[in-house]
Design a protein that fits this description.
- Helix content is about 0%, strand content about 50%.
- The protein is mainly beta.
- The chain has a single domain, classed as Jelly Rolls (Sandwich).
- The strands form three sheets. Strands 2, 3, 4, 5, 6, 7, 8, 9 and 10 form a nine-stranded antiparallel β-sheet that branches.
- The two termini are about 30 Å apart.
């Protein structure tokens, strides 16, 4: 399913809620607009929290530490994200008008906070030499099971090049996943294939991928498509980079 979302009067856009909107994703996700000088403070007693800067310049504060992130928009490929365990207070203060995405899920483990920067995020390029370059995309990973086995979440970014495909070949996994889309121009659009359905992905929309559903994405020519990809590990069955089961009819593509 894909939802076309909007901000409320407080500048908050709810993507999903563990006990409400799209609870089946097992995540609470929202995007917060922060005008210059505004701040938001979170200290959740049950959930781990990740805060990802989407645009603007903001200061992140936690446990006596402070760090600043700055990116005009996601397409600068300069990710800054703070990840903390439950009962850890964080404050994000906008130095300029900013947008910040927050992701949460339940987690009893205690771990040290980590502030991810462009130098510490994993960047990978895929598909440039496959299928005539039609699957060319760039993927950044803030954290997953490889570098944060204590977390119950995964957070990363995908940059689908104009007219190209990503999350390809069609594949599935047993863990639920959420995509939050942005385009380098607000009128940009793409195609979201989710299970047996196809949707028009637009700036600020979100896709909700059910466990076991094949999913693949395409960007319209002329528009670079960005999405934050977020996964909730299944208890006892975490998502790994190899947890991609290609649809049998399309397995031949993996040999091209």
């Amino acid at each position: 399913m894909l939802e076309y979302l909007s901000y409320d009067e407080n500048g908050k856009k709810t993507v999903c809620e563990m006990n409400g909107f799209h609870a089946e994703m097992g995540l609470t996700i929202w995007v917060q607009k922060l005008p210059a000088g505004a701040s938001v403070t979170i200290c959740d007693p049950a959930n781990e929290t990740a805060a990802l800067l989407l645009s603007g310049e903001a200061e992140f504060a936690w446990g006596g530490n402070r760090a600043t992130g700055k990116r005009r928009d996601p397409f600068e490929r300069l990710p800054y994200a703070l990840h903390v365990c439950k009962n850890t207070q964080i404050t994000v203060t906008a130095q300029t008008d900013s947008e910040v995405l927050f992701q949460q899920t339940d987690n009893d483990r205690i771990f040290d906070p980590v502030f991810y920067t462009p130098e510490t995020c994993l960047y990978q390029e895929f598909g440039k030499g496959q299928w005539g370059g039609a699957g060319h995309r760039i993927v950044s990973t803030m954290f997953d099971y490889d570098n944060a086995p204590y977390s119950n979440m995964v957070m990363g970014e995908v940059f689908t090049q104009p007219g190209k495909w990503s999350s390809y070949p069609p594949h599935h996994h047993p863990q639920p996943e959420v995509y939050y889309y942005m385009f380098d121009k607000p009128q940009g659009f793409g195609a979201c294939f989710n299970g047996e359905n196809a949707y028009k992905s637009t700036h600020g929309s979100a896709c909700y991928i059910q466990p076991g559903d094949d999913h693949q994405q395409a960007a319209a020519p002329g528009y670079e498509m960005y999405y934050v990809w977020m996964i909730r590990h299944i208890d006892g069955d975490p998502w790994y980079k190899t947890t991609r089961f290609v649809a049998p009819a399309h397995e031949w593509l993996t040999k091209e």
